[in-house]
């Protein structure tokens, strides 16, 4: 029975809002309502073969020596911006000053905006999953090739966009670097709510550079319609800590229909033969280091201190 129900459930998770040009997440509807529509009706690219997000099976990732640490420029730059509940997520525009390069990216990419995907009150909510594990939230910092003036143009280039994905994990203490964002959420609970954000930098939102050397790389798409397959994905292994209260604050936001804006993640998409690469610092190496340590302990070798 489960085998029959699962495909139906999975396909229904991909809901589009019937009759309008808009789209939505399944969490916005009960399964008796509008569950038979698919996002590829919203945009045919959503039915493509290189879609995101994906589940990353770490033992199947391929270690790539070219995936050296990314070079972050002007990520410390403090900027003023506005934060908006766009009815699907919380989004912050970023002045095009911060850039990334290196790590086998074909060129320099400049930051355009960031937004988040989350679950219900700190429950599972990331878009990418690692070995089937879904984290409570995921940050997407969207970049485009430095030569382009706008995202629309960049999305016509198969490598026009680079998105950095970061997971979150629950920590015991609040992450004070997120106070400006978390506090602002109070004022933008309604869809289209918008307010100016106190000064922040991108660097304060993400792990320190030495904790960003482990990452996964694959080619995919935007995870919202039009689902354009123009994205070089970099998904970092080390999560960002937030307290449960901080995570729960996102569940206070509302979709356009007034219901809680929760579960705004797209279901995982088939790999369709795509390869996922990992930087030399990534997880599988950690396991082999552990294995070596275990072996050494078993053999009674003393560890230098
Ligand atoms: Zn996203």
Can you walk me through this structure?
The strands form two sheets. Strands 2, 3, 4, 5, 6, 7, 10, 11, 12, 13, 14, 15 and 16 form a 13-stranded mixed β-sheet that branches. The chain has a three-stranded mixed β-sheet with strand order 1-8-9, with no helix packed on it. The N terminus is likely disordered. It folds into two domains: 39 residues, no CATH class; 256 residues, Carbonic Anhydrase II (Roll). By secondary structure, the chain is an alpha+beta fold. It is built from six helices and 16 strands. The chain binds zinc ion. The site of zinc ion has 4 residues, from β7. Zinc ion binds next to β7.
Which residues sit in consecutive blocks of at least 5 with pLDDT less than 50?
Answer: 1-13
CATH-defined fold name of the largest domain: Carbonic Anhydrase II
* Shape designation: globular
By CATH, the superfamily of the largest domain comes out as: Alpha carbonic anhydrase
Strand content: 25-35%
Please report the distance between the alpha carbons of the first and last residues.
57 Å
| Largest sheet data | 13 strands, mixed
- Distinct small molecules bound, one entry per kind: zinc ion
- Specify the CATH class of the largest domain: Alpha Beta
Instruction: Quote the average pLDDT.
Output: 88
Count of discrete structural domains: 2
What level of helicity do the residues show? 10-25%
Total helical elements: 6
The CATH architecture classification of the largest domain is Roll
Please count the beta strands (DSSP E, at least 2 residues each).
16
């Amino acid at each position: 029975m489960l085998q029959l129900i699962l495909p139906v459930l999975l396909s229904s998770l991909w809901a589009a809002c019937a009759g309008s040009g808009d789209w939505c997440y399944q969490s916005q509807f009960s399964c008796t309502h509008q569950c038979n529509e698919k996002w590829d009706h919203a945009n045919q690219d959503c039915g493509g073969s290189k879609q995101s997000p994906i589940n990353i099976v770490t033992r199947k990732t391929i270690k790539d020596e070219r995936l050296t640490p990314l070079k972050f420029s002007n990520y410390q730059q403090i900027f003023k911006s506005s934060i908006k509940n766009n009815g699907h997520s919380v989004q912050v525009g970023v002045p095009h000053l911060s850039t990334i390069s290196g790590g086998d990216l074909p060129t320099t990419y400049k930051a355009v905006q960031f937004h988040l995907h989350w679950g219900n009150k700190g429950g599972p909510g990331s878009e990418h999953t690692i070995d089937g594990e879904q984290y409570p939230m995921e940050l997407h910092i969207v970049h485009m090739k430095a030569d382009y003036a706008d995202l629309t143009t960049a999305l016509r280039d198969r490598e026009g966009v680079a998105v950095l994905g970061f997971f979150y994990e629950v920590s015991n203490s609040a992450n004070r670097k997120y106070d400006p964002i978390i506090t602002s959420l109070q004022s933008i609970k309604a869809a289209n709510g918008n307010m100016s954000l106190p000064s922040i930098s991108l660097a304060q939102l993400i792990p320190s550079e030495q904790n960003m050397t482990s990452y996964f790389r694959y080619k995919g798409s935007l995870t919202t319609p039009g689902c354009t397959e123009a994205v070089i994905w970099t998904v970092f292994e080390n999560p960002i800590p937030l307290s449960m209260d901080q995570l729960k604050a996102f569940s206070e936001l509302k979709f356009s229909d007034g219901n809680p804006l929760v579960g705004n993640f797209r279901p995982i998409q088939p790999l369709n033969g795509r390869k996922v690469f990992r930087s030399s610092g990534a997880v599988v190496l950690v396991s082999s280091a552990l294995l070596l340590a275990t072996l050494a302990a078993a053999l009674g070798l003393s560890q230098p201190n």
